[in-house]
Amino acid sequence: MRIATSPRFSKWLISVNAYPFNELRATRHGFTCKHVVIWERNFTNRHDYTCVLAKTIDVSILEDLIMQGGCKPLPPDMTGIMDFMFEQGLQKSPPWYNHVVSTLSEMLEGSERCERKNIFIECIYWLVKEMITKSYDFNSNEGQIVMDAWHGYCSHWYDYNNQISFQILTLMSETFVDDCIEDIHNLGFLQPHHAVHCGTLMWHHEVVFLSYESTSGSIADSSHLVEVAGKEMAV
Fold it and tell me: How many CB atoms are closer than 10 A to CB 34?
């Protein structure tokens, strides 16, 4: 959405060579922006973040907020995320919605451009964590195995198709995590087509040894044998 601005602000915007402003389409007559994040310090001296449609704010107020550092426009890589969060994410999980707004806002406070893949994974992470904690302690062996498998799965699919939308990657992640949780609940381990995305896989003939390598670098206490029945798996 193109927002018409004053010549003074347009000149300022074009001259700013910093993220996220250098990601926007800016001209002498305005700039393209759909969502903006507004932040202010609360009584604990931490930021409260609010994401709103740019068109709902008076242009002169929006200009002042941006120039004074109290508001930043969302770059294109984040716009699709907030479209989905407004349409479905908030209804799906208000806590997840709040985490996503905070995550995007904190990224915007930095001066370096955030990679699209990292933005997607960071935002979906909070939904996956919420799903896991409904079944397991997040820091338990089971919880970390599911998280590790999801991270590998999500990263794999983004690398396979880096034009994938946030909505599709989120829906795929939900299905994958549900399947992993069901595997552990019913079988006590992940099936091979889910386990292949975990951090450590050791192959031996027709048997898969699945071990989870924790963030500390140590191997978790249990390894599971999964019979493959002579079938090869595509990694």
Answer: 18
